[in-house]
Amino acid sequence: MTKVSLPSSDASLLNALLERLGDQPLTGLDYQWAENWVKSMKRRDVMAPSTICHYVGALARYFDWVVRSGTPLLATNPLRLLPKRYAIQGAARSYYLQKSCFGGKLEGQTFGTATTTPPGLNLLRLEEELSAAHLRLANTFVERLGWAACIERYDRPHTLFYLDPPYFETEGYGVPFPYTEYEKMADRLRSIKGRAIVSLNDHPAIREAFNGFHIETVDIRYTVGGSGDRAAARKELIIFSWDDTAQPAGLF
Fold it and tell me: Which letter, b or e, does each residue of 148-164 get, where b requires 16 or more Cβ atoms within 10 Å of its Cβ?
């Protein structure tokens, strides 16, 4: 990309933005590129919506200038092809996929059907479901942090953490979580100021990683993909960072 003369209000932002984009040829800019770029700012760079709007607006005005210059390298501004309220449409699409896919998977999604339950998405209940979620999260801080960074930020003597990491050797979470993460988690929980509870699948490797912790085993039946006789009986581990039998903790 080439830096051009633009209003001073966009100059500093655009120059920084062009350095981030690197040597992207104009001929490769299309709607798919614009969509992927916005997604990367959301997911990889974890930018705030307002920051993304500033970046998209500055670059869109730059592309307008390039298109008006008459160059054959960019006949259409790809950012102007994004639909209005693009962020809201993306959120609606994600909501639809999660409510409609099999098992609520984050990757490798397939459409879920059943003979004993209705579809997961009911548009007539949409406002009711969003309102219930709003009320439940009204007193909650939502962070996009790794588990270790979250513990570091909120660890206090009065804090009770509940950790529900990806189950060991189980797919479909959409993020890598190697065995070393469980080992790091066990090491970190040995030195926290507060208390923590971890739920995981019962696996010899998990028991080894959390050796020395107070562990309780509970029976559970996985009903995703089947119910009744088809439900799979499994065991799960409830791991406490303290001796719960000696110091039982009530949640309420």
Answer: eeebeeeeeeeeebebe
